[in-house]
Specification:
By secondary structure, this protein is an alpha/beta fold. Helix content is 19%, strand content 31%.
Length: 442
């Protein structure tokens, strides 16, 4: 009987020896026939029973969960969160891993991406291979840092709050998220029922007592009266325009970083870890070493975090241009930096706005692109500006490595790279690379 090439293999189990960690929160294994499995809830060196969660006979690889641990790794711990594990919440990748081992595995992923996509060893990238925890996050095995100041809760058909399962629209109902910051937990979102609501984003500022929830109603759904355990502003996502509108309270939260207060409006982007903004500003400024009178660029500038730090350092004879695609973030950036007349913020996509500015030279540049990276066109344009140093802030090591490859083609190489564990219990890692021209002196 001929085998159907499109036959699903979901539910099929394989006993496998687990290989190295890979980008994406899983490890690589192979079946006896050589078929590649991407396996979650396991660790390198373990022997496990892996159950397929995605894939067909003709799939290039299969996704799977480790449902039985036959030979555990010494780096394995009992997952502190009861909602972590096969078929449960997809928010955390490494609840079952000792904290030090999590950082080691993240370092291995960064190193693998650098080698594969940029042709760089850690030494060639100016990196010591370590992933540094944020202040206060270095905890014993079995303890979880409560760091997430923004949590997107999904709401199930009965109105209960939870989190999405891995690569699924299904909701895992929870009574508490262990990695949520205390100020998010104390709102009590999980205790309430949310009829006619599709999702609730809870935001807790680290620079003030501001708390905010952003509600997305189901199609045709009505907003409930929101009564939480702490005072909170309420915003809603409009069904027709998908824009965020104020219901009551402040339409923004106030954050504190780099010795300034930052207005972040209507659910706009801000670093999720409470220590992230200061950590990244310090790393970028130490790497760039801006000077009085410099012309500086802050690309994908958000509400102006790096532009503000640059504006303080380049002095009255210097200038800073920020570019940001979110109109609301641009309004916030202009408000936040209104005391620095040497800072200008333009609205639009970097690849469109930067060529129109007529700027043909910059001294220092910082770019913090979205997860997809900056891309070859933008990298080439930046390299042509002849900057003394460029700081690249990256939340995705694959995008970083790809763009470092483009920078290398254009004559820039990393002289230092630092990696920070600003997303504990997940596979995500933040990197800051400092680049300069290959022929230039320090």
């Amino acid at each position: 009987m001929q085998q159907d090439p499109n036959a699903s293999l979901v539910g099929t189990e394989y006993e496998v020896e687990v290989g190295p960690v890979a980008h994406g929160g899983h490890c690589v294994a192979r079946t006896e026939s050589g078929r590649v499995l991407f396996v979650r809830h396991t660790l390198p060196g373990e022997r496990v029973v892996a159950r397929v969660t995605e894939g067909e006979e003709t799939s290039r690889f299969l996704r799977a969960d480790a449902v039985q641990i036959l030979e555990p790794s010494k780096d394995r711990v009992e997952a502190p969160c009861p909602f972590s594990g096969p078929g449960k919440c997809g928010g955390c990748d490494w609840q079952h891993v000792k904290p030090g081992a999590q950082r080691r595995f993240k370092g291995e992923v960064v190193a693998e991406q650098l080698k594969r996509l940029a042709g760089l060893t850690p030494e060639e990238a100016g990196w010591d291979g370590t992933v540094v925890p944020a202040e206060g996050d270095k905890l014993p095995a079995g303890q979880v840092p409560a760091w997430r100041t923004r949590v997107q809760y999904a709401i199930d058909a009965e109105g209960h709050a939870g989190l999405r399962k891995h690569r699924s629209h299904e909701v895992q109902v929870i009574d508490r998220c262990l990695i949520a910051a205390p100020e998010v937990t104390e709102l009590g979102v999980e205790k309430r029922e949310w009829p006619q609501i599709a999702s609730v984003e809870a935001i807790a500022s680290t620079g003030s007592t501001d708390r905010q929830v952003v509600l997305t109603p189901k199609p045709g759904g009505r907003l409930p009266i929101v009564e939480l355990d702490k005072p909170v502003s309420v915003l809603r996502v409009g069904e027709k325009d998908q824009q965020i509108h104020r219901v009551h309270g402040r339409p923004f939260v106030r954050e504190r970083a780099a010795d300034r207060t930052w207005r972040v409006s209507e659910g706009g982007f801000w670093q999720v870890h409470p220590k992230a903004a200061d950590t990244l500003v310090q790393a970028v400024m130490q790497g760039l070493m801006p000077r009085k009178g410099d012309m500086a660029l802050d690309l994908y500038c958000g509400v102006g975090l790096f532009a503000g730090a640059l504006g303080e350092r380049v002095g009255e004879k210097g200038a800073v241009l920020g570019i940001e695609s979110s109109k609301r973030a641009v309004e916030d950036a202009r408000h936040n930096l209104r005391d620095l007349d040497r800072v200008r913020v333009e609205h639009g996509k970097v690849e469109s706005v930067l060529p129109r500015t007529g700027i043909d030279k910059a001294d220092v540049i910082v770019l913090d692109p979205p997860r997809a990276g900056a891309g070859k066109q933008t990298v080439r344009h930046l390299a042509g500006l002849g900057a003394r140093r460029i700081a690249y802030v990256a939340c995705d090591p694959a995008a970083l490595a790809r763009d470092l490859g483009y920078f290398a083609e254009a004559g820039y190489r990393p002289v230092t790279l630092r990696a920070f564990d600003l997303f504990p219990m997940t596979h995500h890692v933040e990197c800051v690379a400092i680049l300069k021209r290959v022929a230039a002196s320090s």
